[in-house]
Design goal:
This protein has 126 residues and is an alpha/beta fold. It is built from five helices and five strands; from the N terminus they run βαβαβαβαβα.
Length: 126
């Protein structure tokens, strides 16, 4: 069965890229542009994982991560960012119990392998 993934990013080109990559990995993908939309969707639908940008207009991805994990602690949430490897961001992501951290500037093969690893690890913890 295909994994059902929610992709959250305010940039349409990034959403489309991640959706395309994940569909090639046999995932069913839903995409939204805001943290508020993402929170509304996870309340209504069940997802196998959320792939969410850290920097979003309005509510930040970090704030949405915290809210998602408070309500759905077993939902794997993987954070994405265009800011590269940032120790402070990674520490905050871990503090809020994110399941992984992916840089948008990583090679595509590394994005996919990292995503698969984070998802597998999260599912094993359930």
């Amino acid at each position: 069965m295909a994994n059902k993934i929610l992709v959250v990013d305010d940039e349409a080109s990034v959403r489309d890229l991640f959706a395309e990559l994940l569909k090639k990995e046999d995932c069913a993908v839903t995409s939204v542009s805001s943290a508020e939309d993402a929170l509304n969707l996870v309340e209504k639908e069940s997802f196998d994982a959320v792939l969410m940008d850290i920097k979003l207009p309005g509510m930040s991805g970090m704030e949405a991560l915290k809210k998602m994990k408070d309500k759905f602690p077993l939902l794997p949430v993987i954070m994405i960012t265009g800011f590269g490897y940032d120790e402070n961001l990674i520490a905050k992501c871990k503090e809020y119990s994110c399941n992984g951290y992916i840089g948008k500037n990583m090679p595509i093969s590394q994005i996919i392998s990292s995503f698969k690893m984070f998802l597998k690890t999260a599912k094993e913890k359930k």
